[in-house]
Write a structure and sequence with these properties.
The chain is of the alpha+beta class. It is built from 7 helices and 21 strands. Strand 18 and strand 19 (about 245-250) form a beta hairpin. The chain is globular, with a radius of gyration of 19 Å.
Length: about 300
């Protein structure tokens, strides 16, 4: 690994030993080997190709809202696709968004332009790129319902592809890093029926009432098991409020683990394992994590 050569090429814009707790909504995580925020898609492609040539491992992230990073950090160059790659353009019913744009911003701008569709997922605290990678969804809607084409980097080249059947599944898609790195997404929405603002307002109200927004978290920890709801299983197992170190099963919504203060990655992992074992022992259901664990 020739990390020094990589940093030299990009004129020290690659920062060393950046604490990942500063870049995740969980506020957990040790240092990254390097941290870089590209200012253009061309620069993103350049740093990816150079890192590959120099044998430097890479990790791609967006808003850090679905990540649990090891206390030991990430022994890789972390590339954050953020504000510099967040341009949003709306032409009629077609919305084109850079991967770094927050989903909430895309939803608000589309509604302001007389469109509807994204209001039910407007509260998801992630970027468009991250949302596509995991087909983020809430309240019965998912981002994949609206995407018609995606631009991204695959095998070192910038490509554009139309959506095909099977590209999006439940909390999964064909557009996840490192195989595919989303740069831009094109969505097709419908004209507002007059109720988009009301639905977004109601979704926001429900989120404030039912989700533990007062503490750092990574959103829903577990995928919904077939025929069940993860939060209900955890609650019925008597685990609401259960705590290991600084990590707690939310007292407001059992599907969330919150950082009550000073939680480590180990605290969260141990709590996840305890939840999985308890729920399986009581109900025979093995909960699968939705949160992505990175590092080691």
């Amino acid at each position: 690994m020739r990390f020094d050569e990589l940093t030299a090429k990009f004129h020290a814009r690659i920062r060393r030993s950046v604490p990942m707790r500063e870049h995740t909504t969980f506020r957990i995580g040790g240092p990254a080997l390097g941290f870089f925020e590209p200012e253009s898609f061309e620069e993103l492609s350049d740093v990816l190709n150079t890192a590959h040539e120099l044998d430097v491992p890479v990790f791609i992230m967006g808003n850090g809202s679905n990540l649990l990073v090891s206390d030991n950090g990430i022994k890789a160059l972390v590339i954050k696709i953020g504000e510099s790659l967040s341009e949003i353009n709306i032409d009629g019913s077609i919305v084109t968004s850079g991967a770094g744009a927050l989903l909430s911003n895309v939803a608000r701008q589309s509604i302001a332009s007389g469109l509807m569709g994204l209001e039910l997922i407007s509260g998801i605290p992630g970027t468009i790129g991250g949302a596509l990678a995991m087909n983020a969804g809430s309240y019965g809607a998912q981002i994949g319902d609206f995407v018609v084409s995606v631009k991204g980097i695959k095998n070192g080249k910038l490509i554009e592809c139309d959506i095909r059947d099977g590209d999006f599944g439940y909390r999964t898609s064909s557009f996840g890093a490192p195989e595919f790195i989303v740069c831009e997404a094109t969505l097709e929405l419908k004209p507002d029926d007059g109720g988009a603002v009301g639905r977004m307002t109601e979704t926001s109200r429900l989120r404030r009432e039912k989700q533990p927004l007062a503490y750092p978290s990574a959103g829903s920890v577990f995928k919904r098991p077939e025929g069940h709801f993860a939060g209900a299983l955890i609650d019925n197992a008597g685990l609401k409020g259960f705590q290991i170190g600084g990590a707690q099963v939310s007292e407001l919504h059992a599907g969330f683990i919150v950082n009550k203060g000073g939680a480590t990655c180990s605290d969260v992992l141990n709590l996840i394992y305890h939840i999985q074992k308890t729920v399986f022992d009581k109900f025979g259901v093995m909960l699968e994590t939705e949160v992505k664990y990175i590092g080691g």
